[in-house]
From TrEMBL:
It comes from Planomonospora alba. Residues 486-552 form a coiled coil. This is Glycosyltransferase 2-like domain-containing protein. InterPro entries: Glyco_trans_2-like, Glycosyltransf_2, Nucleotide-diphossugar_trans. The keyword Coiled coil applies. Residues 1-20 are annotated as: Disordered. It holds the Pfam family Glycos_transf_2. Keywords: Coiled coil. The lineage of its organism: Bacteria, Bacillati, Actinomycetota, Actinomycetes, Streptosporangiales.
Length: 568
């Protein structure tokens, strides 16, 4: 890393200003590592394209790693000057093993992974490397076009000439399929990933063409050779936790010769990868649906410092964390464990008795580990809660705090618990990626917390409101059985579920009653209308009858008058 790294807030690499292609002077060396198994014809085209790159050949080396090809691969006539063909190191196999074998031999300050079926355009390496000259913690991904499998491929000489003359785009016929449209949509939805949340970034790390500083790759732990597939997703996640910024470089174009296995057999690849990814990538929450599981990488690492603390206080804090409704939690207890010798001692008067009791309490709990001093971050866990001994987080506290941090994108949440002569006693939820980034860019004497707040944001919260309680109030009544409080909350949730079911039943009954009432009202309206019609008919009949009667009476009266006149 450079002495004074520029500061990128979150993933907003827009604060950096890359030079235009062809308008700058490179200085960084790059090692292009190409893992390959078979496919000599495609490899020949890849190396031909690499031999015509705009990035200086004096700064470029290419390492082709043969992962057990039969017959073995060979270097073609057209290849970059500094190209080596090596076999994978003995003792393993697969693409991750080949990449580890190649990067172990790499001399460049930047490692560029390029698959053996990816033919880069002329400015491909240059587009990647111009970013790495700006900051030492960038991961740059290229953009693939997928070539249709139509007709014979071009000859290596034709590929070299076309790439050198800037005509790589005409080398192949594009495949009509969607390709990596999902990546383009993801990138576009987050302003080129500039406002993408940390939990999303590893999804665009799909191998094929990706570059990063060699030092950053080592800091993240390199490729995991135990993974036959999904090694790029796993590494992308760990790079996030190491503080990396992901840059999708649209001008780093390349042809992918044919479609990928993940595109052709998507459902099978997902089925194969999900157990491995679930174990290693905690932010894939939908893959961790079993609350009883213990995972390789926890979602939250809770750190409790046992130095100078009473056994009962440490136990209360640890048990409270393990009783969390957030199931994928691990606890790290810090203390001078190496000082606990096994020689003769007075058991009850042992000056290290509290430490010894803590170790005895959790020695065989797989969720609890012991450390002399916590590491700077809890990587690869995405979050760390530092909890003072004697304070107990409520059953739902961790889950709610993580949700708060994710909603706000915060790098640090500080919970005020108490105040003593030394100041405010606080618990703290740290985002691993934020702390790692701050450690990369903080200057001498600068507070890491201040840098985290500047780049990701930080907030003070009231510990009591977030259900942190002192041990005397929370333990042992509710926390002595590490599962009791979680069970109580589960029982309460079940009771609420039943109440909700009863309420839904009552609502359904009321709706049925309402429907009946409405039907009765409708019938009443229809009856009223019918009787109104009948009443009107009767009225009209009565009027007609009255008029007929009046006419009859009038006729009778007239006849009587005529008779009277006649008689007189």
């Amino acid at each position: 890393m450079t002495a004074r790294e520029p500061r990128v807030p979150g993933n907003d690499y827009g604060v950096l200003d890359p030079p235009p292609l062809g308008g700058w002077e490179p200085s960084l060396t790059v090692s292009v590592v190409v893992p390959a198994r078979g496919g000599q014809e495609k490899l020949d085209l890849v190396l031909a394209a690499l031999s015509a790159q705009s990035y200086p050949a004096r700064l470029t080396e290419v390492i082709v790693v043969d992962d057990g090809s039969a017959p073995p691969l060979r270097l073609p006539e057209i290849a970059p000057e500094r190209t080596r063909l090596v076999r994978s190191a003995p003792g393993g196999w697969g693409i991750a093993w080949a990449l580890e074998s190649g990067t172990a031999l790499a001399e460049g300050r930047v490692i560029h992974r390029l698959d053996a079926d990816v033919v880069p355009y002329r400015e491909h390496l240059e587009a990647h490397l111009r970013w790495h000259h700006l900051a030492g913690y960038l991961v740059v991904t290229g953009r693939l076009r997928f070539a249709a499998a139509e007709g014979p491929p071009p000859a290596p000489g034709e590929v070299r000439t076309s790439v050198a003359e800037g005509r790589a785009g005409a080398l192949f016929t594009p495949d009509p399929g969607p390709g990596h449209a999902w990546i383009d949509e993801l990138v576009a939805a987050h302003r080129g990933l500039r406002d993408a949340p940390p939990a999303l970034l590893h999804r665009v790390h799909v191998g094929a063409t990706v570059s990063l500083p060699a030092e950053l790759l080592r800091a993240a732990g390199g490729y995991d050779p135990s993974l036959a597939l999904g090694e790029d997703t796993d590494l992308g996640y760990r790079l996030t936790q190491a503080g990396a910024v992901f840059v999708p470089e649209g001008e780093a174009l390349a042809w992918h010769l044919g479609t990928t296995t993940a595109m052709r057999r998507a459902a099978e690849v997902r089925r194969h990868n999900e157990p491995y990814i679930a174990d290693r990538v905690p932010c894939r929450r939908r893959l961790r649906t079993d609350p009883g599981r213990q995972w390789l990488v926890p979602y939250v690492d809770v750190v409790v410092d046992a130095r100078g603390a009473r056994f009962e206080d440490v136990r209360a804090s640890v048990d409270g964390a393990l009783a969390s409704t957030l199931s994928d939690v691990a606890v790290t207890v810090a203390g001078p464990w190496s000082s606990l010798g096994e020689g003769r001692r007075a058991p009850l008067d042992d000056p290290l008795l509290d430490l010894r009791l803590v170790r005895a309490q959790y020695a065989h709990d797989g969720r609890v580990s012991f450390t002399e001093a916590p590491a700077p971050t809890s990587a690869p866990a995405p979050f760390r809660l530092v909890c003072p001994a004697g304070w107990v987080p409520g059953a739902d506290a961790l889950r709610l705090l993580v949700e708060q941090a994710e909603r706000e994108g915060a790098g640090l949440l500080l919970l005020a618990l108490d105040e003593d002569d030394s100041g405010v006693v606080a618990a703290r939820l740290e985002r691993t990626a934020a702390v790692a980034r701050a450690l990369l860019v903080a200057r001498d004497g600068e507070s890491v917390d201040d840098v985290v707040a500047d780049l990701y944001g930080a907030a003070w919260l009231d510990g009591e409101s977030w259900t942190f309680r002192p041990a005397r109030l929370a333990y042992p009544e509710q926390a002595s059985d590490r599962n009791r409080e979680a069970a109580r909350w589960r029982a309460e949730a079940e009771a609420r579920r039943k109440e909700a079911e009863r309420a839904r039943g009552q609502v359904a009954a009321l709706k049925a009653e309402l429907r009946q009432a409405r039907a009765a009202a409708d019938r009443g309206r229809r009856d009223a209308e019918r009787w109104r019609e009948k009443a009107e008919q009767r009225r009209l009949e009565a009027v007609a009858a009255r008029r007929a009667l009046e006419r009859t009476l009038l006729r009778r009266a007239r006849r009587r008058v005529r008779r009277l006149r006649k008689d007189s």
